Amino acid sequence: MWSPTEEEKYGVVICSFRGTVPQGLVLELGETVQILEKCEGWYRGVSIKKPNVKGIFPANYIHLKKAIVSNRGQYETVVPLEDSVVTEVTATLQEWAVLWKQLYVKHKVDLFYKLRHVMNELIDLRRQLLSGHLTQDQVREVKRHLTVRLDWGNEHLGLDLVPRKDFEVVDSDQISVSDLYKMHLSSRHSVQQSTSQVDTIRQRHGEACRMPVPHHFFLSLKSFTYNTIGEDTDVFFSLYDVREGKQISERFMVRLNKNGGPRNPEKIDRMCALFTDLSSKDMKRDLYIVAHVIRIGRMLLNDSKKGPPHLHYRRPYGCAVLSIMDVLQSISEIKEEKDFVLKVYTCNNENEWCQIHENIIRKSSTKYTAPSSNYGLIISLQLLRGDMEQIRRENPMIFNRGVSVTRKLGFPDVIMPGDIRNDLYLTLEKGDFERGGKSVQKNIEVTMYVLYADGEILKDCISLGSGEPSRSAYHSFVLYHNNSPRWGEIIKLPIPIDRFRGSHLRFEFRHCSTKDKGEKKLFGFAFTPLMRDDGTTLSDDIHELYVYKCDENSTFNNHALYLGLPCCKEDYNGCPNIPSSLIFQRSTKETFSVSTQLSSTKLTQNVDLLALLKWKAYPDRVMDILGRLRHVSGEEIVKFLQDILDTLFVVLDDNTEKYGLLVFQSLVFIINLLRDSKYFHFRPVMDTYIQKHFAGALAYKELIRCLKWYMDRSAELVRQDHIQEAMRALEYLFKFIVQSRILYSRATCGMEEEQFRSSIQELFQSIRFVLSLDSRSSETLIFTQAALLNSFPAIFDELLQMFTVQEVAEFVRGTLGSMPSTVHIGQSMDVVKLQSIARTVDSRLFSFSESRRILLPVVLHHIHLHLRQQKELLICSGILSSIFSIIKTSSLEGDVVEEVEMMVESLLDVLLQTLLTIMSKSQSQEAVRGQRCPQCTAEITGEYVSCLLSLLRQMSDTHFQHLLDNFQSKDELKEFLLKIFCVFRNLMKMSVFPRDWMVMRLLTSNIIVTTVQYLSSALHKNFTETDFDFKVWNSYFSLAVLFINQPSLQLESATPAKRKKILDKYGDMRVMMAYELFSMWQNLGEHKIHFIPGMIGPFLGVTLVPQPEVRNIMIPIFHDMMDWEQRKNGNFKQVEAELIDKLDSLVSEGKGDENYRELFSLLLLEKIEQETWRETGISFVTSVTRLMERLLDYRDCMKGDETENKKIGCTVNLMNFYKSEINKEEMYIRYIHKLCDMHLQAENYTEAAFTLLLYCELLQWEDRPLREFLHYPSQSEWQRKEGLCRKIIHYFNKGKSWEFGIPLCRELAIQYESLYDYQSLSWIRKMEATYYDNIMEQQRLEPEFFRVGFYGRKFPFFLRNKEYVCRGHDYERLEAFQQRMLSEFPQAIAMQHPNHPDDSILQCDAQYLQIYAVTPIPDNIDVLQMDRVPDRIKSFYRVNNIRKFRYDRPFHKGPKDKENEFKSLWIERTTLTLTHSLPGISRWFEVERRELVEVSPLENAIQVVENKNQELRTLISQYQHKQMHGNINLLSMCLNGVIDAAVNGGIARYQEAFFDKDYITKHPGDAEKITQLKELMQEQVHVLGVGLAVHEKFVHPEMRPLHKKLIDQFQMMRSSLYHELPGLDKLSPACSGSSTPRSNVLVSHGPMSPESIKLVHRHSPLNLLGSVRHSSSSLSSHTSSETGNLVILTDSSVGETAEDMYHMQASPSTSSLSSTHSAPSQMINSAPSSARGSPSLPDKYRHSREMMMLLPAHRDRPSSAMYPAAIMENGQPPNFQRALIQQMIGPCKPCSDPNLSVAEKAVPAAPSSWSLDSGTREALPFLSAHVGSILAPPVPPRSLPHGHYSLHFDAFHHQLSDAPPALPARTLRKSPLHPIPASPTSPQSGLDGSNSTLSGSASSGVSSLSESNFGHSSEPPPRTDTMDSVPSQTWNTDEDLETPYLPVRYSLSEPDVLESLKSQPCRSHSAPSGVIPQDTMDPPALPPKPYHSRLPNMENEEGMIIEDDDKHRPLHRKVSQPVSGGKEEQARVAWEHGITEQ
């Protein structure tokens, strides 16, 4: 049975529980649980992490903890009973854990590791705190460390600042807002400092009790590595001040043995000292650490004879120094010790030993010797700060090591009362001694003893240095042979105070002989007593002592014998009559000097002080003695404070009349002395004295009298120093007065009480009198008043001992009231007055409610005056926050209604006014600059805001009621409401409190919402009906809107724990305010119309807050607005317009979401249902909902890392919506400009122009003025339209779309002409002319087009389940485009087939992309069919203004005929129609309509042949009409291509397929089409005949053999068609000739039609460098033309070297039908076989693509770099060029045309074969003559069979002004490789079908099977041609000028060698230049080469013809040999291979 738990309420999981039982709660180790019920070993409860999930768990998995349960029952809350810091650490660590992991994910590694370290520290510190074994101090320290780390982590993780007091988190309910503000400030400060937290509320007022922080140096000697001494040493460390030239510290002594270790083994690792009490001033001095090294051993280190070994002397050895200035920086930064090495220098002359450290510091290097090695003293230093107690606490380890505390020689800056010290420091200065008849000087040693009066030697009273025990005798070090030694050694004499009087020092002088005996001979002594006869101690000075002679026999037993003698000159003057008969005779020539310095708290050297203490001895001198007290030093006074005070009061009692004033002055002097920071710590001594030792019961009368006398005189005196001093001493004077009165009262049982009271009242009258004086004229008086005001608050506590609280409060009120108001006194007095008030408020007096009622009015009066005048705001705010703090504390205990009432009356209005002023100032910073820094302004603002909030928080409803009732008129109320609303609004707008002050911000919001609830009723009551006031209501609504939108209230972004905490404490304040707002809106009634449309935007902002309840409350308001406007105007156009406008800007700011869209629609439609205007309402709501859909999409695109494409698509979608659906012109225009900017950013200039054109079209050529809009100034419509036209023309120019720019130029020209603006007209006409030139001259790439389908619901709304056609970028092929799309939609899956997707894909929650290339279908067919139009012009119309696109998919219907596949090969042709034509405002448009037709094999054949015929006709007509002059090459190639292809089986295959009887019988319906095909074939033969006739007319004599070969082959073609097509034999005799049958079966062709001729650039240099696949079969591929492409299209700006390209290896393929189709059958490869489609490459082919990417983008390239440039004659180009280029850069098209040779498809790469007969010999010289220089960068050609002719067109580089210099072209090098013979079946044939470079077209009769002629080929083989540079020529297009033919290269095809190579497999081998590869068989004899003798050096390996003057450069060559086999079989296999891959 489950029963509720009583005790077990809270626990921690100590073992993870998987929750495997029914209702089990899954728990992780370390989670905390709240237990609700228990049952037999099980608990039921919740995890604190997930408080909503209840479940059961085993009891033994839980460790129970004590907890406090509140609100027992169903909703009980449990708080663990542990230290609040531990609780906080636990919660914080849990919160950090989540964020910590995210740091790693976000690559913030540095913070990740730092935070991990801090978390580990927190866990460790928490463990220590929980252990319960720490002392209170340790607990405090651990808590300090914990909170510092918590705050550090919170700050770095961007979490909220936690306000604390004494390390505990403060409860904001328990303290005033002002205090909370200060705690935030101090917490922030401590976070920034990350140091210990001082008292959180800083002492704003009161004494500057900031103690100077002492510094201490910790020094540790690590080792002394000096092995040259070999004797024991003493090392003395001290601090030395260079400027003053003296030591400032005691010495620290280390005794080392001869090995460098400590002489005392216990001292190992303990040789350390702490140099204490260095002030900040000391740290700025030029200090050095000086180490003196004294050795203890024989007299001379290197002379063993000097002195016996048993006698040891202290002898100087060396010195080392270290500048503290140099190392201070480095040791200040680190918290641990840092090591330094000190070199020990030795002294060159012992006489200068006392100055050695100065010489080293001054670098007087002649006076010392540097050590031979770098070793020396290794010390470590550490700088510590704080008083000794703190140092001991923080660094226990240092003190555990037995550190020697080494003090300063004098007193520290602060003398502590308990610091008892009695040290006399004696310095052995120097001596002057006689030689005494010796030939050499003496070695003098001084021995010193301290003797007591009875002659006893005092033990342990001499200390050589800290670190070693004191001793009884001191022996100085010995300077060798020196009668005037200078020692400079400081000795400390710690003599007990009781032994000091009567003791004396005796110095004995001995000569240390170095003779054999080595005894020390005494020869004299000196002495000095420590105290003089008058009781003063030996003064701090140099004392020159008399030296008395003596010898070893002299006894000092009777010290009285010499003590009677004078010890020095002063002594001698004091006792002149000294008998001369004494034993000791003074040596007059010898002297000895010592200096002393006393640091004692018990002894004085001051005569005046002693005189005062013994005043009774000098009764007549008392006045003088009292007067001289002022001249005694402060140190002496504080040492004898109690004695002096006793003496003063005894003197006062002795004769009050006579000494009263002097004693008063002395007392004032001593009191003021204690205000000095150096003696501040003696105030407790004074306090103790007054409480316990003071006995002057009568003193009060005299003190009051003197004080009053001083005050009364202040009006008359000019010099008031003594009065001011008395004022400053007021506090202690009152202490003495009160204590004296208490003593008197006690002694007399309270007599004279009345007199005392009246005297005090009189004194207060005097005080008021002083304060009421007008001090503006007298500066001294100001200081007197200031001194009085400063001291005044300190006397309250004393008065409270004698008077009641009310009496004291009355005194104080009178005094404060007597001060003149702020107007009549200067600013300095203002400050002092306010500081005095502040200290009054901070005093104990003010904490009594009785006194507060009396004092508060006067305090508030002064503050009110200051705030009114905006003076001293900072101090006023401090006073106010103290008052609020006190009232808050009191309100927890008692009733403060009355006080709050006073404050509301006095302050509320002026506080609001002040805040408004400050806020407006801080907004316009200039007011601040002169006065205070912005930070001060922020601080003042914060202070006053917290004061206002404190006041509002204290106000109850009665206060609010009184406040509102007290307003005299509605105007006053209105003004007040406007002020308070304005302040609240500013509070939220300016964000006065930083973002991380969450506690403060939430409390502020809570106070605002509470206040607004009180005020809204007043607003409703007073300003609704007849007195409606728009301004107040508007202010109220704006405030409410701002409030709900506050970032700090948006709980959705907070962590769950934080959200729960806020909701528990305050609830959701947005909802509270929303209810308030809604009810106020409802109260407005008919006045609602005033807020339409003004409040629509703000309210819309509120509804977009992601809080469902707020949305539910607020959205219906829009219905209300629509309703009211409908009532008033009959429509709601305003609501509609404003809503749409504001929705746009708000959504783009990131507000709103899908849920909002649905809720908006749902709530409004529900409301509108009942209305009469239902239909318009519903349509409006629907369109707004649809707008929201688009806006949300747009926003998601813009804010994400989305690509340009997505952003552009989204913008177009939204723009169209604004235009077409809701007709918002302004929004439409805004989005036009946004879209234009995006296009410009993506460099889509044409699209940018089309976009701007939309705006341009909206404008008319009129003079209507237009307002300023976006970036346009206010101007006329005409001007704006003109500016737009110019900009659009500029963009069309940049996008090379000049044809689109020209109509605009014309439009502008008409305008200019009509205005007679001839200057502009001239300019625009020139522009137009330039564009025509550009069209003819500049190179333009034709783009690819791709169809993209976006399927699935995960796509943004504007793409979902739609298909688009996209215009690709320059050089972009299909696989690059696909990669781009997949990177834009990383979640998308690429579909691998082109079929239309089914519903499952369309509706799934995923993204599918379907991409394939499509072919444009131009609209403007006319221009493409015109014969004389240059191809440059046509090419534009082929790919621009395109709205329809085609995609062909080949497939087989029925069984496939293996012999001839064309019989069953159908084409599925899809035609896509777009919504707009491309290019347009976007690079892609949606498909509007798709049509699918199937093209039968026969129809396909008809199209192919028809296209070819059209092309031939065009070319022939160009020659007939003299468009092409001179050079006949293009025609030669075209004819050769068609005839050769026909012979080799192209048309023959069609014959086989369609003219077959079987076919005709099976397809009776096709008879007409068969006839059409026959007619077209006949027409082709006819056209070819005409072509050959034209060819014969123009052919050059040397090219006759070629013509003859064409005639022969044409004859063969004719005869092969003869049987099928009778009538062909009637052809012109010019065409007749013998023909050789070919063994080739067919040659594949690509389609060619006038409308689809394309520039080869679409296939880009990428493809050229790209893979060339060569085929071993006669069905050669499109790529057969690529050798030519490579040469022609290589650009001068390609950065690769020939050698780089040579490393690409060719990959032979068995497929010859279309090498582009050997790619894997991915979806994009099954795309239409179009010249544009560039399927994705298999990995091994990718390299070539990457190479291609190196080319510059199209717009950066030299204009005609891709063109074959002709060699000029007279600088002009030939007129054949246009046709040549038209042919050269014609594309490879998707239909199959058996008659089209490769030459026409891509570039004229190679002429077809011809017979190698005698005619060839004539051809070659002709070529040589016309070729000119070979001009192309080396580009690898296809691998060719040896010896074939290869024709190359070399690109000239068209040099524009910005074109880069052309790469040097290189000569073709000859290499003796053996040629390969042609096929044995055609012994006369020079060119065989197996030569893929020269064979016919590329996809024999197969419609659209080949994707692209380059798309999928393998990499080209290396080549060895080298070329030398030739000057580039300029390209020009004038038609009438002649130039020689373009450069051509032939490669010879030798007929005999092929057989010998057929059996060899394909392999490639390199031969270095000059090495002849040996064939395995001897080649058969070659036919004779008649031209060889004439051109000995003009043939390269491939038989290339080169110029004589070309140079040779060797390069390695690799040759790929084709695999041979049955050609027909290979053709068949390749064909099938291609089809299956399809």
Strand order of the largest sheet: 25-24-27-28-29-30-23-26
- Work out the helix count: 68
Secondary structure class reads: alpha+beta
Specify the biggest β-sheet: 8 strands, antiparallel
Secondary structure: helix percent: 40-55%
Assess the beta-strand content as a share of residues.
5-15%
On the 0 to 100 scale, the average pLDDT is 75
Any idea what the radius of gyration is? 55 Å
Give the termini distance in whole angstroms: 74 Å
Instruction: Report the strand count.
Output: 41
Per the principal axes of the C-alpha atoms, what is the gross shape? elongated
**Uncertain parts:** 195-209, 926-932, 1623-2038
Question: What would you note in describing this structure?
Answer:
The chain is of the alpha+beta class and 2038 residues long. Helices cover 44% and strands 13% of the residues. It has 68 helices and 41 strands. The strands form 9 sheets. An 8-stranded antiparallel beta sheet has the order 25-24-27-28-29-30-23-26, with no helix packed on it. Strand 31 (1265-1266) and strand 32 (1275-1276) form a beta hairpin. It is elongated. The relative contact order is 0.04.
